[in-house]
Write a structure and sequence with these properties.
This protein is α/β, with parallel strands linked by helices. It has a domain at 62-319: Alpha-Beta Barrel (TIM Barrel). It has eleven helices and 15 strands. Strands 1, 2, 3, 4, 5, 13, 14 and 15 form an eight-stranded mixed β-sheet that branches. It has a seven-stranded parallel β-sheet with strand order 6-7-8-9-10-11-12. The protein starts with 7 loop residues before the first strand and ends with a strand. Keywords: Metal-binding, Zinc. Zn(2+) 2 binds at residues 162, 195, 218. It comes from Propionispira arboris. The record marks 164 as: Transition state stabilizer.
Length: 376
């Protein structure tokens, strides 16, 4: 055994790690920003330089929000990364297409490198991203395939390609931008992160273009042409896409989470793989608020505590193809979230103004971000 003292030893935490299946009271050692060991309750513990006593609070892998907009003061929408990141218990946020090939280097310099939260990117297939407006795919000449390819091949922070498939975005180009993005994503072996909303394009046409590993966000929006047909059944194209291995992401947003759609889809066996917020400046004060608040909504809608934790830790890490995240095991990055779960009624509102009542609330205490303790 290496006799060097640990940088940090975390004790008296209630560990919940969906990857290893560990659940219960464990101690966790941290060295050089990584997990050095996970020790059961009766184990003899290594020496340490610093001690963190969680006094019975939960500790999970660091929470990951797959859908945010953090090009603060740069894109047409945006919020400060740390405001919705480490200050809310989230160690990793993924910016969903705020930047494209034309401005990603600016985004990297001003946002990624300055945030304490880990900031990743779904690079917008449109070169301008959302820096110049919200109809970025009305002209397919806005796509610079070669510049996009070069960036994705050279920047590890870029985890895939964002494509927004709503009528207000694409105007008359329909699925043209998606087809270009899909061809490029296949060449580069990265996923597509696809926004769905008002049609056209028709959701079935979008789903038919997607392959294993691609991600659909806003899947439970309440607009016309969503995941349920007129009789309330799941679209056959959605069932087929799930069978092919696509992932479903919540992407709550200002207009993109319907409690009715969520509950009815779940009753028919369709549930989200990941819980994300689509947080930006206009919905931070409601109806979204935070990833924590969105997780509470999902529990109020019937997801178990373990399902919810999995949907903000292990599943997003898999979708990002980043095995160093989303788990608490030796060698993984020491990103962890600690919080308490308390009982008490709370009213939650969806994007359409509908209300439900939940009884489980999460009180975030802080995070460990690559070995550094940051209190809320």
């Amino acid at each position: 055994m290496n006799m060097k003292s640990l940088d940090l030893l975390i004790v008296n935490g209630l560990l919940l790690d969906p990857f290893t299946g560990a659940e219960g009271r464990y101690s966790i050692g941290v060295q050089n920003g990584k997990i050095a060991g996970v020790y059961p309750e009766q184990a003899i513990l290594p020496r340490y330089n610093n001690l963190l006593d969680l006094a019975g609070a939960y500790i999970t892998p660091g929470w990951i929000d797959l859908h945010t907009h953090v090009a603060y003061k740069e894109a047409v929408i945006g919020i400060e990364a740390d405001c919705i990141g480490i200050q809310q218990g989230v160690t990793t946020v993924v910016d969903a297409g705020s930047s494209g090939s034309k401005n990603f280097l600016q985004f990297e310099k001003n946002i990624i490198k300055k945030a304490k939260t880990r900031v990743l990117s779904w690079l917008n297939i449109s070169a301008a991203g959302l820096y110049e407006g919200r109809s970025e795919l009305e002209d397919l000449a806005s796509i610079d395939v070669e510049a996009t390819k070069k960036l994705i091949s050279s920047k590890a922070e870029i985890r895939g390609i964002k494509v927004r498939m709503s009528h207000s975005v694409v105007k008359e180009t329909n699925t043209g931008g998606l087809k270009i993005a899909k061809k490029l994503a296949s060449q580069l072996h990265v996923p597509l992160f696809v926004h769905v909303g008002n049609c056209p394009p028709v959701l079935g046409d979008i789903l038919n273009l997607l392959e294993q590993g691609d991600i659909v966000t806003h899947i439970f929006h309440g607009k016309a042409g969503g995941c349920l047909d007129a009789e309330g059944y799941i679209l056959p194209e959605l069932k087929a896409a799930i069978d092919r291995g696509i992932y479903l992401d919540l992407g709550h947003g200002t207009e993109s989470c319907s409690f009715f759609r969520f509950k009815n889809a779940r009753e028919k066996g369709i549930c989200i793989d990941s819980i994300s917020t689509d947080l930006y400046s206009q919905n931070y004060s409601g109806p979204v608020y935070s990833l924590k608040h969105t997780m509470e909504k999902c529990m109020a809608l019937g997801m178990s505590f373990r399902e919810v934790i999995t949907a903000v830790t292990l599943k997003p890490a898999i979708m990002l193809n980043m095995p160093e995240l989303g788990r608490i095991k030796a060698g993984a990055l020491a990103d962890m979230t600690f919080f308490e779960k308390v009982e008490g009624e709370q009213t939650y509102i969806d994007a359409d103004g509908n209300e439900i009542t939940g009884t489980q609330q999460l009180q975030v205490k802080g995070v460990v971000r690559e070995g550094k303790v940051i209190w809320r």
